Amino acid sequence: MAGVNKCLKYSMFVFNFLFWVCGCVILGISIWLRVSSDAQQKFNIQGSGVLTAVDVMIAVGSIIMVLGFFGCCGAIKESRCLLLLFFIGLFLILALQLTAGILGVVYKPQLEQKVNQTLHDLLPLNQQSEELKKALHTIQEENKCCGVINGRNDWGNTVPPSCICNPVTDTDKCKAGFYKQTCASVFVDYYKSHLIIIIGIAFGLAAVELFGLGFSMTLYCQIKKK
Questions:
Q1: Which of 20, 121, 213, 224 qualifies as a FRET site for 5, CA 20 to 30 Å off?
Q2: C-alpha 202: how far from its chain's center?
Q3: Which residues of 70-193 form beta strands (DSSP E)?
Q4: Domains, the chain
Q5: What tens digit of pLDDT does each residue of 70-81 get?
Q6: Tens of pLDDT along 98-123?
Q7: Contacts for 51-56 with beta carbons within 8 Å, 24 or more apart?
C-alpha cells in the first residue's frame, strides 16, 4: 500500500498552524474592537448592528482557531476523522465568507443612505441620552465636525462647545464660528474604509482556504488508501 506523502503531510501541518495563527489574530482584533472605547463610540451611533457583526467575527476567530487545531492534529496523527471535521468546517466558513464578501460588495453603494437614515432618527440630538450625547461630543471634538445631518441645527437651541471652532486655526472648517462638516460624512468614510478591508479579507482568505480544502482532502484520501 502506498504511504502518506510526507511533504503533503507537513505542508498540511504548516498550513493549519498559519490558519490557527490567523484565527488568533481575527479573535484578538475583534475583541479589541468590542472593548475599544473609540470603536464603541463610533459603532454605537449606528445602533447594535455593527457591534453584532464584531461579535460574529469573535465567533469566527474562535472557530478558525479550533479548526486550525483539528487540522494540525489530523495531519500529524494522520487522523481521517479530524481531517474530515476540518474539511467540513472550513467549507462552511468559506461559504459564509463568500456570502459576506458578496453582500458587502452589493450593499456598499447603499451605505451612505443607510447611515444618513439611521442618524436622522436620532434628531434632535439634545433629546438623546446623556451617554449618546457624550459620545457625540467626543466624536465632534476629535473629527472637527458638528451635528449629524444639518450641522449645529441638529442640536436645537443648545449647541455644545464641541461644535465651536477657531476661525484662525480652522479657517477651512469654520462657518459662522461652528464646524461646517457634519459627522455623517465622518461615519460614512469610517465604515466604507473598514468595509473595504472586510471585503478584501473575505476574498483573500477564500483563496487560501481553497488550498486548505485541497490539502486536507488529498491527505484524507491518501490515509484512506493506506
A1: 20
A2: 10
A3: 174-175, 178-179
A4: 6-110+192-225 (no CATH), 114-185 (1.10.1450)
A5: 888 888 888 888
A6: 776 677 677 666 666 777 777 777 77
A7: 54/30
